[in-house]
Amino acid sequence: MEILLNNRRESFDTEALTVSEVLALKKFTFRMLVVKINGELVKKEQYGSATIKHGDEVIILHLISGG
Amino acid sequence: MTFEDIRKKLKYFKVGIAGAGGLGSNCTASLVRAGVANLVVADFDVVTESNLNRQFYFADQVGMKKVVALRENLLRIHRNLEIQIIDKKLVPGDIPVLFADCHVVVEAFDDKAQKQMLIETLLEYFPHKPVVVGTGMAGWGENNRLKTVVYDNLYVCGDQQTEISLDCPPIGPRVAIVANMQANMVLELLLGKMDTHGDTIEQ
């Protein structure tokens, strides 16, 4: 499948992935994230169940301290 | 647009600022200088000596509540400013109440968990409200790694990488650059993309 991840095209060899699987595959090690799939907020407790499919627009913003 | 036109247009808008530290205090000062005249600012903290390396406070304000000191300083720039100050550590329940009528919210918290809480809560209650986030501004130098990336209605300013630590503290120039990138993004949104009712204009 092909998705748009943070405004960039990404290809994966499977039909669907959970948010947790995408985080692992893309090696996201940051823990404080804001995730949206097609404009819908996905909260942390849904990372294991929310699925990402072909054509989805996914945003994974990681937050770091400072300000 | 002349500066008079800009001021006239900015009068229609209200901006929310979550956090009055390095990002929030400097961002708000720039917004007020540009003509934003209706603000709500929330912070629970007190001005300390260590804040003076980057925040818009002065030595004689050490010990004051940040929101009180900031209001004082902003009123010295713009006497007729409408500013609502909230002296409180925000919890999710506060956010839909405080920022409901803001056209844009500036995320200017220090702590990443607070940043996440604010953004998630705003997305939950107001999925289309623009949120201007600041993340990654510790240290010094590397001007050109500071950028603004747009993810839907999230406008993310900073390098998205440098986290504060003992060896990489937040310092005036870089923090103020990001604070001003946020202020500049707010102006772009208010002057360009929104009509005077606060509705987003399709580009």
Detailed description of the structure:
The complex is a heterodimer of chains A (67) and B (203). Chain A has 67 residues and is mostly beta strands. Helix content of chain A is 10%, strand content 42%. Chain A has a single domain (2-62), classed as Beta-grasp domain (Ubiquitin-like (UB roll), Roll). Chain A has one helix spanning 19-25; strands spanning 2-5, 8-11, 16-18, 33-37, 40-42, 51-53, 57-62. In chain A, the strands form 2 sheets. Chain A has a 5-stranded mixed β-sheet with strand order 2-1-7-4-5, with no helix packed on it. Chain A has a two-stranded antiparallel sheet with strand order 3-6. The longest helix of chain A is centred in the first third of the chain and has 7 residues, at 19-25. Chain B has 6 helices and 7 strands; from the N terminus they run H-E-H-E-H-E-H-E-H-E-E-E-H. The radius of gyration of chain B is 16 Å and the shape is globular. The longest helix of chain B has 22 residues, at 172-193. The interface between A and B is medium-sized, with 18 and 37 residues.
Gist of the model:
The complex is a heterodimer of chains A (67) and B (203). In chain A, 10% of the residues lie in helices and 42% in strands.
Secondary-structure map:
The complex is a heterodimer of chains A (67) and B (203).
Chain A: E1 2-5, E2 8-11, E3 16-18, H1 19-25, E4 33-37, E5 40-42, E6 51-53, E7 57-62
Parallel strand pairs in A: 1-7
Antiparallel strand pairs in A: 1-2, 3-6, 4-5, 4-7
Chain B: H1 3-10, E1 15-18, H2 22-34, E2 38-42, H3 66-75, E3 82-86, H4 95-98, E4 104-107, H5 112-125, E5 131-134, E6 147-151, E7 154-158, H6 172-193
Parallel strand pairs in B: 1-2, 1-4, 2-3, 4-5, 5-7
Antiparallel strand pairs in B: 6-7
